[in-house]
Amino acid sequence: MPEGRVVKAYSGHYFVSHEDAVVDCKIRGRLQKEDKDVLVGDIVSFTFTCPDGLYGVIEDVLPRKTRLLRPPVANVDQAVIVVACCEPSPDLELLDRILTAVEADSLDIVICFNKIDLVSRYAADKLAKPYRNAGYDTVKVSARAGWGITRLRKALSGKLSVFAGPSGVGKSALLNALEPGLRLETGEVSARTGRGRHTTRYSHLLKIEPAGYVADTPGFSKLGLDRIGSRALGYLFPEFRIPMKDCKFSTCVHHKEPDCGVKEAVEAGHISEFRYGHYVKLLLEATERERRRGR
Ligand SMILES: Nc1nc2c(ncn2[C@@H]2O[C@H](COP(=O)(O)OP(=O)(O)O)[C@@H](O)[C@H]2O)c(=O)[nH]1
Ligand SMILES: [Mg+2]
Ligand SMILES: [Zn+2]
């Protein structure tokens, strides 16, 4: 039976990408009775209902790897977190919060530093370096000048990605640079609120040649950091994972404890101080939540 990926869904129509075509499918009644929902991103098996290959029926949904709530997309592999080098000026605390939330979802991560046409090469490097050192995949790009787009395309290949990041950083502009046919609306950053104007409401998948898919709706508007416990937090900072093996106490949360491998790595300059500072902030928030819940 043929298989394909659901790239768009509305009012009972499920558009399944199969080979080089998109098949307009309904769902087999049996699936509806079993209460199996079909999400954008799902891999499904289907049969054709007419010889021209335009229409079909979804027979089954293959097991899902992941399910993202915002946007509601199945089988997302990767988050591309977009930061602008300026306009708006980078909010590294927000970046670290998004990174932590995405790490907790076990997605692959690419940090995309956009608008490098507006800053010196030195400034862009200075921004990206702590994240490269922490072990993240980083790309420096300019949607406007077309720089770095080939590298970004490569990072998207073979995966289903969600773009994340605040309004105005250039998420839509980057997708347009990747696929000029898309013509997504881009918004000027509003001077009054500092936020972009245009928001998208429901999601479908955009094909990024050669073999990538991107959800057209940015993800992680709500971060879900309140689900992360104080003990788990350190593991979500990849550059802590090796130094924490040197902590004297197995329960160390790398804050007030003596003989802490993570704090030693900060002092030695192997972990950047601002990343550690954001960790402590998140840790205190988590501890406070746990105290209030009486744990
Ligand atoms: N100079 C410059 N401006 C950019 C770049 N990428 C996007 N912009 C501008 O930044 C603004 C916000 O872009 P948009 O794609 O709407 O951001 P989004 O809210 O993240 O989707 C628009 O005015 C874009 O033209 C870039 O690489 N360089
Ligand atoms: Mg946009
Ligand atoms: Zn420690």
What's the CATH architecture name of the largest domain? 3-Layer(aba) Sandwich
Rg over CA atoms: 22 Å
Mean pLDDT equals 92
Q: What is the number of helices? A: 8
Which stretches are poorly predicted, pLDDT < 50 over at least 5 residues? 190-201
**The CATH C-level class name of the largest domain:** Alpha Beta
Please give the share of residues in helix. Answer: 25-40%
Write the CATH fold name of the largest domain. Rossmann fold
Within CATH, the superfamily of the largest domain carries the name P-loop containing nucleotide triphosphate hydrolases
Can you tell me the overall shape?
globular
User: Whole-Å distance between the termini?
Assistant: 51 Å
Structural domain count:
3
Structural class: alpha/beta
Strand order of the largest sheet: 10-9-8-11-13-12
Strand % is 15-25%
H/E topology pattern: EEEHEEEEEHEHEHEHEEHHH
Name every ligand kind in the structure.
guanosine-5'-diphosphate, magnesium ion, zinc ion
Query: From the structure provided, what is the oligomeric state, counting identical versus distinct chains?
Result: single chain
- Biggest sheet descriptor: 6 strands, mixed
Count of DSSP E strands?
13
Task: List the topology elements.
Elements: E1 3-10, E2 13-18, E3 21-27, H1 29-33, E4 43-48, E5 55-61, E6 67-68, E7 73-74, E8 78-84, H2 92-104, E9 108-114, H3 121-133, E10 137-140, H4 149-156, E11 160-164, H5 171-178, E12 205-208, E13 212-219, H6 230-233, H7 261-267, H8 273-292
Parallel strand pairs: 3-5, 8-9, 8-11, 9-10, 11-13
Antiparallel strand pairs: 1-2, 1-4, 2-3, 4-5, 6-7, 12-13
Bound molecules: guanosine-5'-diphosphate (GDP), magnesium ion and zinc ion (ZN).
